[in-house]
């Protein structure tokens, strides 16, 4: 019999009146049963976070850093257990789930380091102007207040970590809402946070339904909203609270550009392997998975067969098997949507090179060529194991093809030409350019986010800390410099 998972209300375990089951997208089994907070309990959590905001902000840095280190250490100790939980609720192959736990460990460790050195302040002498003689400006950063962190299903542990760890590092209370499909990983973080000395009220993990979110988003006691998810929901949040500080990490349809100088067999083998792996890892359910390959005409005909072969070599099946590369999507409905988009593209004239088949919640790794520009698959984020290949003539046409998308999260640029790399960095309308690799590379300490319809603000521990805080200047008068 599956036990019921309590949620975390102001640092303590609590249960509500109702529950819901979390099921595996692979085999439909019940992975866990989760208690749902009542409206009164949600109000209690928000009130507690708001009440503790000033005292938590004043908590010594070493206390916050110690709590973050503790969570990192406990994640290491429980890696296999948590990886199995991620795989169960998300359908993620176990090897990728283990990697996700390792990334979350790094996030908390980075946050502990940043907590110790953050906000040392910057001094600026003002006597550079005659009116500023005897004056010194000291600028420090202070948190904006309670953070509402809304996490998605695709990285159910690590993207919760990217909300929670920076908030604790800057002394901002946080209300974390994990995704309804995958709440168990977020609740595990609650277990580990409860083992620390963080003050009551400074954090809650509330697995509330999505239809409860508008009220939380509108609550004036929650001045910061950090959301990772779909473009539609993200911009609906922003439009509903234009005076709040929102960080939105939204979608993308990541492009991998292969320029003509990246042309010997070793180069093309590397590009094909990386493209195949990272168009399909997490079942393609990553904002920076490879969705588009834009290859120079001089390498296209040799590259595409290598990509198809590498995609067909991806091992699909049971996510609990360590050999599996590609598991199911998060639900059968998600797989049906991907299926409908591919079918639409093929009917419109796209050439199906491999894949194109659905089995329940699983969709076969798929490659398309000659994708018409007006198809849904061309314009939107597929969030599934599907990529298209496109032939272009030269660097300028390749960069134009990348920029033709409404999204701008990250792009990969396969080239050996350092000047082309710098031209790409300048010309490509994205938040990150990954040279020599796919757009799917992300280090958790680097700035991560997009432009255009891919969102606003940046994650990556230090950069999220900046987003959760603002500069406040103090001018000292009568200072003998």
UniProtKB/TrEMBL annotation:
Chain ranges of the Aldehyde dehydrogenase domain: 16-471
Similarity field: Belongs to the aldehyde dehydrogenase family.
Ribosomal protein found in the keyword field: no
Molecular function GO labels: lactaldehyde dehydrogenase (NAD+) activity
UniProt keyword list: Oxidoreductase
Family matches, as Pfam families: Aldedh
The protein's name: Aldehyde dehydrogenase
Originating organism: Streptomyces finlayi
Domain of life: Bacteria
Spans traversing the lipid bilayer: none
InterPro entries according to UniProt: Ald_DH/histidinol_DH, Ald_DH_C, Ald_DH_N, Aldehyde_DH_dom, ALDH-related_metabolic_enz
């Amino acid at each position: 019999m599956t036990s019921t998972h309590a949620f975390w209300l102001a640092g303590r375990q609590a249960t509500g009146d109702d529950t819901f089951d979390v099921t595996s997208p692979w085999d439909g089994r019940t992975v866990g049963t989760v208690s749902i907070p009542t409206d009164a309990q949600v109000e209690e959590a928000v009130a507690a976070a708001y009440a503790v905001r000033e005292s938590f902000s004043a908590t010594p840095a070493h206390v916050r850093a110690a709590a973050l280190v503790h969570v990192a250490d406990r994640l290491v100790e429980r890696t296999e257990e948590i990886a199995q939980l991620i795989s169960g609720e998300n359908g993620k192959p176990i090897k990728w789930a283990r990697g996700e736990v390792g990334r979350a460990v790094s996030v908390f460790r980075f946050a502990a380091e940043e907590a110790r050195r953050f906000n040392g302040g910057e001094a600026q002498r003002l006597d550079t102007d005659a009116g500023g003689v005897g004056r010194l400006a000291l600028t420090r950063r202070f948190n904006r207040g309670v953070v509402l962190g809304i996490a998605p299903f695709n990285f159910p542990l690590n993207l919760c970590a990217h909300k929670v760890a920076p908030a604790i590092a800057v002394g901002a209370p946080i209300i974390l809402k994990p995704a309804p499909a995958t709440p168990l990983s977020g609740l595990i973080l609650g277990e580990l946070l409860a083992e620390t000395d963080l003050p009551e009220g400074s954090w809650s993990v509330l697995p509330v339904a999505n239809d409860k979110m508008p009220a939380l988003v509108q609550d004036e006691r929650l001045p910061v909203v950090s959301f990772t998810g779909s473009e539609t929901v993200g911009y609906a949040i922003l439009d509903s609270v234009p005076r709040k500080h929102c960080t939105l990490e939204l979608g993308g349809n990541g492009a991998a550009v292969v320029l003509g100088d990246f042309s010997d067999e070793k180069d093309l083998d590397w590009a094909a392997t990386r493209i195949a792996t990272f168009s399909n890892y997490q079942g393609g359910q990553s904002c920076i998975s490879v969705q588009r390959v834009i290859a120079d005409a001089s390498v296209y005909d040799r590259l595409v067969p290598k990509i198809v072969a590498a995609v067909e070599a991806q091992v699909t099946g049971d996510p609990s098997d360590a050999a599996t590369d590609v598991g199911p999507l998060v639900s059968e409905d998600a797989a049906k949507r991907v299926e409908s988009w591919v079918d639409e593209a093929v009917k419109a004239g796209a050439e199906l090179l491999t894949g194109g088949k659905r089995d329940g919640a699983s969709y076969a790794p798929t490659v398309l060529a000659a994708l018409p520009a007006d198809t849904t698959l061309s314009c939107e984020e597929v969030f599934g194991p599907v990529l298209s290949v496109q032939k272009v003539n030269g660097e300028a046409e390749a960069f134009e093809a990348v920029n033709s998308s409404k999204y701008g999260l990250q792009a990969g640029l396969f080239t050996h030409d350092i000047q082309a790399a710098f031209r790409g960095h300048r010309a490509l309308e994205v938040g990150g350019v990954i040279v020599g690799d796919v757009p799917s590379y992300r280090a958790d300490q680097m700035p991560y986010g997009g432009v255009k319809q891919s969102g606003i603000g940046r994650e990556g521990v230090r950069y999220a800390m900046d987003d959760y805080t603002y500069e406040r200047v103090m001018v000292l008068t009568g200072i003998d410099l």
